[in-house]
């Protein structure tokens, strides 16, 4: 289904509101409870950052499946990594937990479906497993991916920025003490997060980025699988900042737009510095962008189209800001732009949740697997959005 098949209109900013409810918790079949053994599918980045959590699982892992021939013969948490063809006869009814990101999971899911396996019965993604099984077995409240926007200032003006930075009525750096309070409130109530991202705007523009890195690393490193700092490579980081990133074993996600914007010298310098400090990083130079519609052409969907959209998107990158936990970081940015108003069900005021009440804290996990009123008008990043646009096209 193409986004172009849906009529899109631009209502007045004051009308851009709605109501959404729901969560995808509770999808795993009952026989997931009480399992003693699982088979992870994927020995890559996601598998690596989830090791700390799986050490707490007390589950037998006889082997790990991976399609990458270069990983065959290696080990993940002591378990051999083998191809699916070899594993198929040995699975023996064990549940498969797919350790992959949003896009890769879709491809692996299609493959497993073709093998006659059923999602949520025979296999699930690691985010679903974290959110459900660890609660049932360990009473742990776990969230897969949380982003915190530390600045809405940026060096670029991307027309189709999925955080709508050029369309914000005001841009600002957010004070360390304010965001520190949000971090403390969140981790007082949540036991583990696979990904925690510091994002912008352009993160390297924030003068206190080093304080965020140090605070997270010192206080919550054992509760986070991987802390990621996202940059577009246009700003030269200080040596002090690079040393902090290395010290706390953080990951640098570099969005490379040099095919569109002329800053190759800056990008090459950053890559050289990152290699010099032996920092784990990814240079993402083949990013595919789609048009989210908002704010110029918000989607208008029928209930049937919305249901399909929600099933297709499910990025599960939540947001933390202002003492609140939001379902979607994109929706928070839409509100921050001053062009959309979120509804009360789109976020949780963390200060109102008793950290000693595990059931109350569970509401954070439910929202993390939920929806947002913004989903009604957002093109999203699911397979239903085929409105492909030029990556990093600049507004003059």
* Oligomer kind: single chain
CATH topology-level fold name of the largest domain = TIM Barrel
User: N-to-C terminal Cα separation, in Å?
Assistant: 32 Å
Unreliable residue stretches? 1-20
Main sheet specs: 8 strands, mixed
Structural class by helix and strand composition:
alpha/beta
Beta strands, count:
16
Walk across the major sheet and give the strand order.
11-10-9-8-7-13-14-15
Helix count from the secondary structure assignment: 12
Q: Helicity, in percent?
A: 25-40%
Domains (count)? 2
Q: State Rg.
A: 21 Å
* Helix-strand sequence: EHHEEEHEHEHEHEHEHEHEEHEEHEHE
The CATH architecture term of the largest domain is Alpha-Beta Barrel
Shape type: globular
Q: Which strand-content bin applies to the residues?
A: 15-25%
Average of per-residue pLDDT values: 92
- CATH classification, class level of the largest domain: Alpha Beta
What can you see in these coordinates?
The chain has about 400 residues and is an alpha/beta fold. The chain has two domains: about 5-20 and about 140-390, TIM Barrel (Alpha-Beta Barrel); about 30-120, Rossmann fold. Helices cover about 30% and strands about 15% of the residues. It has helices at about 45-50, 50-55, 85, 100-115, 125-140, 175-185, 210-220, 240-245, 265-275, 305-310, 330-335, 360-370; strands spanning about 40, 65, 75, 80, 95-100, 125, 140-150, 190-200, 225-230, 250-255, 280-285, 290, 320, 325, 345-350, 390. An eight-stranded mixed beta sheet has the order 11-10-9-8-7-13-14-15, sandwiched between helices. The protein has a three-stranded parallel beta sheet with strand order 1-5-6. The longest helix has 13 residues, at about 100-115. The protein is globular and about 60 Å long. The two termini are about 30 Å apart. About 40% of the residues are buried. Mean pLDDT is about 90; it is low at about 1-20.
